[in-house]
Design brief:
- By secondary structure, the protein is mostly helical.
- It contains four helices and no strands.
- The protein is rod-shaped.
- The chain starts with a helix and ends in a 5-residue tail after the last helix.
Length: 104
């Protein structure tokens, strides 16, 4: 009966890997950029991309937060009129397109 057990021993016993195949576990940090800096950079990049995508989807102007003010359009129109002169409508229209596109 022991011959049968010797032949079937591989079914319940695991092979021991040779010493050169054992993976080394290093406790040291690998060379290069430190882990906290990589984490902070990743967090910042994900935050910037998320805010940019959110702004595009919702339609918020992140560049000009003063566009939400009630008197913004009148102030912008006065600035364009003072820069271009009151008798130059093409310049005023172009100025409004460039400086305050939300007011047109």
């Amino acid at each position: 009966m022991s011959r049968w057990f010797d032949r079937l021993r591989f079914l319940w016993e695991e092979e021991i890997p040779p010493p050169e195949e054992v993976p080394r576990v290093d406790r040291e940090e690998p060379a290069g950029v430190p882990t906290p800096l990589r984490g902070a950079t990743r967090f910042a990049v994900i935050g910037v991309v998320a805010v940019s995508l959110m702004a595009q989807v919702i339609g918020v102007h992140l560049v000009a937060p003063v566009a939400a003010a009630a008197s913004y359009c009148s102030t912008c129109a006065k600035q364009c009129a003072s820069q271009c002169g009151p008798k130059n409508p093409p310049c005023i229209t172009n100025c409004k397109k460039m400086l305050c596109p939300g007011c047109l």
